[in-house]
Amino acid sequence: MTDARQVIDNEVKSSDVVLFMKGTPQFPMCGFSGQVVQILNYLGVPYKGVNVLEDETVRQGIKDYSNWPTIPQLYVKGEFIGGCDITREMFQAGELQQLFVDKGIQVQQSA
After folding, report:
1. Residue 73 and residue 84: Cα distance in Å, rounded?
2. Is residue 110 one of the residues assigned to a domain?
3. For residue 70, how many other CB atoms are within 10 A of its CB?
């Protein structure tokens, strides 16, 4: 039995942009995960998708890790950004794009 917190911590710290989601970036298994995938793909930001449906301990563990009750969850450079609504609102306001730029992550589309 691996420690879910350690697994999550490693994922968050090993990639600049990590999306804990239901399904995969190619096949999102819920609409909210799909919306965040669409935003990240539109911006051309390289990211790692972690499918929480594959591991129940990670699925519950990510909620405890971030103290956030829902999935998807977006992390940038180890920092929890938010779920679908926050990500979408930041994107629409141009704040998400600015966050990526500020963190030194290449964005192919700007607002």
Report:
1. 7
2. no
3. 13
* DSSP per-residue string spanning 4-45: HHHHHHHHHHHSSEEEEESB-SSSBSSHHHHHHHHHHHHHT-
Is there a domain that residue 108 lies in? no
Asked if residue 33 belongs to a domain, the reply is: yes
- From first to last of its 111 residues, the chain has per-residue pLDDT tens of 468 999 999 999 999 999 999 999 999 999 999 999 999 999 999 999 999 999 999 999 999 999 999 999 999 999 999 999 999 999 999 999 999 999 999 998 654
| Tokens of residue 61, six digits | 């563990």
Are the CB atoms for 60 and 71 separated by under 8 Å?
Answer: no
Rounded Cα–Cα distance for residues 48 and 3 (Å): 20
Round to whole Å and give the CA distance between 100 and 57: 29
- Residue 88, domain CATH: 3.40.30.10
pTM: 0.94
